[in-house]
Amino acid sequence: MRPIVVSLARLVLPVGLLLAGACSAPAPAGPPAVLYTLRAPDADGHRLEVEAVVPSAGEETLELRMAVWSPGYYKREDYASRIEEMVAETPEGQRLVLESKTSNRWRVRTAGHPSVVLRYRLRCDEQSVTTNWVSPDLAVINGPATFITRVEKGPRPHEVRLEGPASWPRVATALEAVTAGEETRYRAPSYDVLADSPILAGNLSIREFDVEGSLHVLADGGAWEDFPVDRAAQDLARMARGTRDFWGFLPFPRYVFLDVHREGGGGLEHADSTLVTVQPSRLATPEGYEHWLGLVAHEYFHAFNVKRLRPIELGPFDYETPPETASLWVSEGLTSYFAELVLRRSGLTSTDDYLATLSRRIRKLQETPGRRVQSLEEASRRVWATSKSGLAENEETTVSYYVKGPVVGFLLDAEIQRRTGGVRDLGDVIRWAYQRYSGARGFTAEEF
Fold first, then answer.
1. Burial letters 216-253, b for 16+ CB under 10 A, else e
2. What is the C-alpha separation between 326 and 329, in angstroms, rounded?
3. Which residues of 101-123 are buried (b: 16+ CB within 10 A; e: fewer)?
4. Which secondary structure element, helix H or strand E, spans residue 49, and what is its range?
5. % helix / strand / coil in the chain, to the nearest 5?
6. Chain segment 144-164, per-residue pLDDT in tens
7. pLDDT computed for residue 388 by the predictor
C-alpha cells in the first residue's frame, strides 16, 4: 500500500490544506493522541479497516467504548453492530486479551505496554447521514459510527490518517489538517470534536466563498455531475450572509458543506460543517432544488441554535446514554422557522413560497390527531420512544416538532410584534438567549 499512500497523500494534501486549515506545527503538549488509520482494501465490498493506536500509559487494563447514537439524530443506532472482526495487539504485533463487556464496550489487558493497537473491520453500506458508506469512488465517514476510543474523563486529541484508494483523490472535512512531510493527518482536540466532524473522500467538486472573513467550502460528492455547483455556491453564499445578518456575526472561521448526491435524504448539523444527502433526480426539479436549499439553511442555522446555544441536557454528550430534554422544539422547530425567514429575506424564496410552506405546516398540524394528545415538550422528551428523531410515526398519538414547532414560532413572533408595536420580534428572543446561555452551560426549559 505504501506507493499508493504516497500518491494519495500528494493528491489529497492541497485539498486537505484548503478544506481543513493547514498546520505543520507539532501537536500541543497534553495527553498523547489516539491515532486512527483508515484503509479500504475491500471498497467494492463496502468495508473499512480501522487501526487505532490507543495510548495506555502502562495501565494493566484499558477500557474502550463506541457510541450508540449521534448528537443531532435522536435515535439509538448501536454502531458496534457493524463491526465484523476485532483484535488487540501490542505495537510489536503480539496478540492481547480482548474482552467484550457490553455490546459497545471492551476491555484490553495491556500486559503493561504503553499503547495498544486495536484493529477492526466495519461494514459501511448505509446511506444515512449518521452511518458510513465506503465504495471505490466515495467514502462518507461519521465519527460516532467509526471510532472506538478510551473510556475516560477529560479531552484527549484524536488524529485520523486516510490510506484510501487512489480513486479518493480529495478529502473534505472540518477537521484541522496537520502535515508532516508528505503525510496528512486530520486532528481533533477531543473525541467530541472528532465525533462532530464527518469526513468525505472521493472525486469531489470543490467551491469556495467568503462571508465576512469566514471561509465557506461546498464539497459535492457522489453523482454530482449534473448539479449546478456554481449556482449552488452562489445561493449558499447569499444564505450564509442572510444568516450572518440575522445574528450579527458568524461563530466560525471556516465552514464546510458536505453535500452527497445519492439515494436517500436528510441532513445533520455539526459545529463547523453539515453532512447532507440529496437525490440527484429530485435536485433536477425546481421544487427539489428549493427543498435542498431549505435543508442546508436549516443545518447551517443549527451552527448557532443547538451547537452553540443548546438545551442544558445536550452537553457534555454521553454517547452511550441518550439524553432527555423538553426543548427540542426550540432547537429544531424554531430553527426551521428562522431558516425559512432567512431564505425569504435573502431573496432565495418568494413571499408566496414562504407563506405556502407555512400553510402546508398548519394544514399538516390540523390533520394530525396527535396534536390533541402530545404537547411539544412531551414530543421533545419522548423523542427516543415515540418518533423517528422528531418525525411522528404514529400521528394518532404523537406530534412532530418539525411541524408544530415552526407554527408555534410563527404565532409567538406575531404576538411579540403585536404587543410591542413591531419594535421586537422572536429573533430578539433567540439572540438574547444566545447572549445569555450559549457556551458551556446551556439553558433549561424554564430559562428559555
1. bbbbbbbbbeebebeebbebbbbbbbbbbebbeebbbe
2. 8
3. eeebbbbbbbeebebbbbebbbb
4. strand 47-55
5. 35, 30, 40
6. 999 999 999 989 999 999 999
7. 78
Q: What's the confidence (pLDDT) of residue 57?
A: 83
Average pLDDT taken over every residue of the chain: 93
pLDDT for res 441: 85
Residue 96 pLDDT > 90: yes
Query: Cβ distance 36 to 158 under 8 Å?
Result: yes
> Residue 219: is its pLDDT beyond 50?
yes
- Is 369 in a helix, a strand, or coil? helix
220 in helix, strand or coil? Answer: strand
Cis peptide before 316 (omega within 30 of 0): yes
Residue 183, classed as helix, strand or coil, is strand
| Interatomic CA distance for residues 19 and 342, integer angstroms | 26
Question: pTM of the full predicted structure?
Answer: 0.93
Residue among 396, 389, 417, 406 nearest 266 (CA): 389
Question: pLDDT value at position 23?
Answer: 60
Q: How many residues make up the chain in this entry?
A: 448
Closest CA to 448 of 422, 434, 303: 434
Q: What are the residues whose beta carbons fall under 8 Å from the beta carbon of 299, sequence distance 6 or more? A: 267, 268, 269, 274, 276
Q: Pick from 417, 190, 402: which is nearest to 316 by CA?
A: 190
What is the enclosing helix (H) or strand (E) of 354? helix 351-366
**Residue 42 in this model has a pLDDT that exceeds 70:** yes
What's the pLDDT score for residue 19? 52
